[in-house]
Amino acid sequence: MAKIQSIRGMNDLLPEESPLWQYLEGKLHNLLSRYGYSEIRFPILEQTELFKRSIGEVTDIVEKEMYTFEDRNGDSLTLRPEGTAPCVRAAEQHGLLYNQMQRLWYTGPMFRHERPQKGRLRQFHQVGVEAFGMVGPDIDAELIALSARFWKELGITEGLTLELNTLGSSDSRKAFREALVSYLTPLKAQLDEDSQRRLDTNPLRILDSKNAETQALLADAPVFDDYLDEDSRAHFAGLCERLDALGISYVRNSKLVRGLDYYGLTVFEWTTDLLGAQGTVCAGGRYDGLVEQLGGKPTPAVGFAMGLERLCLLLEATENLPEKKAQADVYLVSSGSRAEVEALKLAETLRESLALRVVTHCGGGSFKSQFKKADRSGARVALIIGESEAEQGVVQVKWLREEREQQELASAEVVATLAAALETPAQ
Ligand code: ATP
Ligand code: MG
């Protein structure tokens, strides 16, 4: 029978890759708690309406990338393409937002039907960080500082650039949108197809077009800065001042608009040229209007999401991978059913008393093949129990990584001996 394969663009994570993910996640959990952020978990499926209303009907995600289907009741459900909208939905539903400040984070798979390639998958993973109830640029700066510290703790000191922009208040966006449409309408025929369509529906996204001819036409387009009102300017200046004070450098990219509708004021992306076209590792901004748009009271909010697959690629590209760890400290080798029982018991005693990783050989086999597995496990020491050892209540201790004579110990002495010996690192 033909074997069933995974879905294109949805990867398995194999045992040899999972230590890198655990390393990343461990660092993130630690960092987020040091900044006072709490984890929130919400389902992978939501009502389709949630994403339509938040991300925007005329965005790449909603127009072409969502996994949407009818369930058995005929309800339209969508596999979450991002976490901000469900995070707001959950926080609002459980009364976490009204008159409160919240610092939240989440992680997990997101789903988008895109063309799979390096750094672009159909099931990918994000860590998202969202802060609610804080209106000033200090929280924007905190989030950016948190991301900057994360790169530092991962050893990525070069290769990432912080691109920063402001999308202003909704009034200034409206004024700018009108000016942009007036400028582009006579040039419509020369725009790429997507941009032609967006001219009517979502003209700001044209700034983000990857098409070179469209970009050339934009060279003389009106500039957003000229349309910013005073409050928007003050917020942005406040953010820049704080980033300067923190020593975080950035590049102003006035074309940065982001692919989702809900952003206003601050937007930012951490980008790299080490990953080809998939160069954005982390992206976010302020979305003060979203909570209200989803039925809550007006609530200031700002957040970002980072793509973990791209981060893994970046760690590889910058040679910042964590050291490979051995799978075990101690490997138990045994032969004969009585010895097997003794080995299982001894392994439990060791795990009970010492913080060691203990692997018991299961399933029998010759001593030779068991030693091969012991070696491959990376263990420093093999404990051997054959028939006669089992009978006499002793264990042979064989050091696998250092010049040291094999010892015979009474079973009762093994814990004390290993405790003393394994405290010193291997030579
Ligand atoms: P892009 O411009 O690369 O399509 P995006 O603007 O659609 O990115 P966001 O919605 O802002 O991305 O998501 C935040 C982050 O999630 C991105 O910066 C990226 O690191 C990651 N990401 C987004 N889509 C994918 C994907 N299909 N596969 C892997 N990672 C992704
Ligand atoms: Mg995208």
UniProtKB/TrEMBL annotation:
<dbReference type="Pfam" id="PF13393">
    <property type="entry name" value="tRNA-synt_His"/>
</dbReference>
<dbReference type="InterPro" id="IPR015807">
    <property type="entry name" value="His-tRNA-ligase"/>
</dbReference>
<feature type="binding site">
    <location>
        <position position="258"/>
    </location>
    <ligand>
        <name>L-histidine</name>
    </ligand>
</feature>
<dbReference type="InterPro" id="IPR004154">
    <property type="entry name" value="Anticodon-bd"/>
</dbReference>
<feature type="binding site">
    <location>
        <position position="112"/>
    </location>
    <ligand>
        <name>L-histidine</name>
    </ligand>
</feature>
<feature type="binding site">
    <location>
        <position position="126"/>
    </location>
    <ligand>
        <name>L-histidine</name>
    </ligand>
</feature>
<dbReference type="GO" id="GO:0005524">
    <property type="term" value="F:ATP binding"/>
</dbReference>
<feature type="binding site">
    <location>
        <begin position="82"/>
        <end position="84"/>
    </location>
    <ligand>
        <name>L-histidine</name>
    </ligand>
</feature>
<protein>
    <recommendedName>
        <fullName>Histidine--tRNA ligase</fullName>
        <ecNumber>6.1.1.21</ecNumber>
    </recommendedName>
</protein>
<keyword id="KW-0067">ATP-binding</keyword>
<dbReference type="InterPro" id="IPR006195">
    <property type="entry name" value="aa-tRNA-synth_II"/>
</dbReference>
<feature type="binding site">
    <location>
        <begin position="262"/>
        <end position="263"/>
    </location>
    <ligand>
        <name>L-histidine</name>
    </ligand>
</feature>
<dbReference type="InterPro" id="IPR036621">
    <property type="entry name" value="Anticodon-bd_dom_sf"/>
</dbReference>
<dbReference type="InterPro" id="IPR045864">
    <property type="entry name" value="aa-tRNA-synth_II/BPL/LPL"/>
</dbReference>
<keyword id="KW-0547">Nucleotide-binding</keyword>
<dbReference type="InterPro" id="IPR004516">
    <property type="entry name" value="HisRS/HisZ"/>
</dbReference>
<dbReference type="GO" id="GO:0004821">
    <property type="term" value="F:histidine-tRNA ligase activity"/>
</dbReference>
<keyword id="KW-0963">Cytoplasm</keyword>
<keyword id="KW-0648">Protein biosynthesis</keyword>
<comment type="similarity">
    <text>Belongs to the class-II aminoacyl-tRNA synthetase family.</text>
</comment>
<feature type="domain" description="Aminoacyl-transfer RNA synthetases class-II family profile">
    <location>
        <begin position="1"/>
        <end position="335"/>
    </location>
</feature>
<dbReference type="GO" id="GO:0006427">
    <property type="term" value="P:histidyl-tRNA aminoacylation"/>
</dbReference>
<dbReference type="GO" id="GO:0005737">
    <property type="term" value="C:cytoplasm"/>
</dbReference>
<feature type="binding site">
    <location>
        <position position="130"/>
    </location>
    <ligand>
        <name>L-histidine</name>
    </ligand>
</feature>
<dbReference type="Pfam" id="PF03129">
    <property type="entry name" value="HGTP_anticodon"/>
</dbReference>
<dbReference type="InterPro" id="IPR033656">
    <property type="entry name" value="HisRS_anticodon"/>
</dbReference>
<dbReference type="InterPro" id="IPR041715">
    <property type="entry name" value="HisRS-like_core"/>
</dbReference>
<comment type="subunit">
    <text>Homodimer.</text>
</comment>
<keyword id="KW-0436">Ligase</keyword>
<keyword id="KW-0030">Aminoacyl-tRNA synthetase</keyword>
